[in-house]
Amino acid sequence: PELQVMANIDLRVVFNMDSSRVGPKEWIKMARLLDKHRDRYDAFVVVHGTDTLAYTAAALSLMLAGFGKPIVITGSQLPLLNPRTDARQNLIDSLVCATAGRLHEVAVCFGGLLLRGNRAQKTSTSVYRAFTSAT
Questions:
Q1: Residue 129 pairs with which residues in a beta bridge?
Q2: Alpha-carbon span 119 to 61, nearest angstrom
Q3: pTM as predicted
Q4: Residue 6: its pLDDT value, please?
Q5: Extended beta strands in 15-133, E state
């Protein structure tokens, strides 16, 4: 409910699969869908499993270079229904970053950090701050 106070949200499930199986075919599908709706929305938030989240962010940052609008990719270490999940906070943070008006590229928002999509890497499978960047 609090997300709808922050922005007008349109939800689309592009595919529902274990992120360890997400690769080039899915990246192309996501890139085409984002490009198709570029003029309809001010920003995009992509919810993604953590196994290949950094790879997807890097691929989309290259495939959609010059896109000119925020594409924020997020996920969680624990499922949404888990009482101690990080999903809620990561989603709220992602929406805040996407709608702030300062971001114009693909980014990863996870564990309280906002990272460039083409620089993010997964460094932990257990802690909430699972992604980092070399710079």
A1: none
A2: 10
A3: 0.94
A4: 81
A5: 44-47, 71-74, 106-110, 113-116, 120-122, 131-133
